[in-house]
């Protein structure tokens, strides 16, 4: 095998490490105690007590030497900073949108967009709105409507683009609601709340055609645009020979604008932007931005943050990086599947989702099986994931409880942080917990708020 052949057949981390951060080992007895002190809620653990932290891929990545070099040479001027122009150029080179409005993170871009265009009585359709997107749509008085295809809701269905929008449902919604009550159509790539599943180019094009036909603006929630481009390259006919950047450009060419959290495919620890073609909308958004984020050439970011994002956007599109990124998620998924651990398939872009409803089938949904399995991962191996199930979604507005549609443990991977041996270790911990599943019991909520309770609730294992 020559090196070229080797490169295409094997996948190794496409970087070497020259700055390291120690992680701390604890004993199982210590972890039992730490978990009890944290009210059995991993959100309340201290990060130093976690060995492998897969709580989120947001803002937790490692920056490159190139990004750090950019940070050192940033321009911190209040107005007209060169770092802003570097960010603007980078975003325009990839998206071709005329106006680039920097924000301190993704939700700030959402706040500006929806405050400006949405209001009471409006409906904003999407494949699946991410939590903060939904919250900002609702905060404006509008309704956030999810129209993902049916396959996207079935954990075992192996459709290659489970993040696609249901086009018939979109047409139906437009018909029913009327075009003047739909300020924008959104599509989230990849579909974070739907398992990090990708959206096909064909679907993006079709949504764009429907939007154009009805004269409704079409925006992309672009947080994981590079990961989505990789899935199009590897799963959609006609794209295998295209570079990720060409695919990303085509994706954006169908839209009128985008919102972005640079904490994901911006490869940065903070940052974001709103971009669009409309002069009129951009002027309104900039006026609001001055009120909430800052002057339009920094928008809540330091000059050095803008440098890191400007460089990170291109690093996220690097083929070797994307091949490693998507493969490391699939690698864990394959290992778990071979051991019989039920997971959401196919594995998506940024996380592996364990199907706790099936793993702990003896624990009823309102005794929170995914919560229980996630805590077992911490107790056994110091691993922290997050429950996406009935603790997160079960509380109803009237105060009653209803089981969520799925009980999942999400293991989200920070970018460029963990190596293959970390992933091998993870697989051992998860398989070990799976083998002990019959001894794992449910939980109850001891105390906590009604809204977003998973962040701060104190829990108790049943039988205590
Ligand atoms: C993270 C995320 C957001 C919000 O971005 P923040 O930077 O966390 O404010 C919006 N949409 C999607 C799909 C996300 O993953």
From TrEMBL:
The keyword Lyase applies. The modification N6-(pyridoxal phosphate)lysine is found at residue 264. Keywords: Lyase, Pyridoxal phosphate. GO terms for molecular function: carbon-carbon lyase activity. It holds the Pfam family Beta_elim_lyase. It comes from the Bacteria. Its cofactor is pyridoxal 5'-phosphate. GO terms for biological process: aromatic amino acid metabolic process. Belongs to the beta-eliminating lyase family. This is Tryptophanase.
